[in-house]
Amino acid sequence: MIRSAALLFRENGYSGTGFRDVIAHSGAPRGSIYHHFPDGKEQLAADTVEWAGAVIERRLARAAQQGDPIAALGVFVDAWREVLEDSNFRAGCPIVAVAAEADAGSAATAAAADAFARWQDLIARTMLDAGIGRTDARRLATLVIAAIEGAILLCRARRDIRPLRDVHRALEAALRTAIS
Amino acid sequence: MIRSAALLFRENGYSGTGFRDVIAHSGAPRGSIYHHFPDGKEQLAADTVEWAGAVIERRLARAAQQGDPIAALGVFVDAWREVLEDSNFRAGCPIVAVAAEADAGSAATAAAADAFARWQDLIARTMLDAGIGRTDARRLATLVIAAIEGAILLCRARRDIRPLRDVHRALEAALRTAIS
Asked: ipTM value of the model?
């Protein structure tokens, strides 16, 4: 059900996805969603965000072991390029859907903030390993997450991968300057 | 009605805002929304995106006259900081709401792509004026739009202005490197 919710959120948004859609997509029995998520859609959204955040986090953690921020950036970009191209630009980031639409201060929004913070920490760690100072690493890691999430939206609006490619190149240049 | 739709989209998203909500918020007579937007919500969304895009565009056009990309960036950041802080982080960008949720290939999504492209052209123009080459200007202007839109989402999730401030500083550094 969480997997279905993630797929639906990233295409139809958080408000655009109902319990009914998740049940239909997952093929789960109707009662089970109320059993597993007694607090309702917000709880499902929080768990979905946590799951989707962890998928990217594992990829980033592997990349971070190399201590190369440009490689970590590449891993992050590649993950989203796949999502965009495989869906013909209909799917974006399920966590952005929740961050953009769920109530401020809800468990779902807090889970989104947490996922972004974990990604940012992993990317910042590769920057520290590459000799970038603490403040610059924090700023640049925030820039990477923000710019890639924003580029995903631009790509979907244009139905074209170029914004992501351009943002990738511009971020590589910024990282190279910070490392040198 | 367009103004109401923009306010509602940026807080509740595109799917989370119905015609009924726009009628209630604007105080317009019920029939008038069907009169003005016979093609339905997608038409309202397209017109709202065009209107909201033009508001930012006018600010950027004034800033662009100075030919200073760092000043233009500051204008763009300030516009969004106001929206975030005035709404206690409940409101984001109405155009992102549409880009994230409206159907790919719809008039509303096309209007979103058009608004982003107009902002990007204005920012790129200030970069060309400052002596940045054409390819770098295109990439950096895309980076500015993507990163600020992404930072708005991070700020809303965290209910904190710091992601926008960090992204602003990191973008300034990238622009300074490109200019020098």
From this structure: 0.94
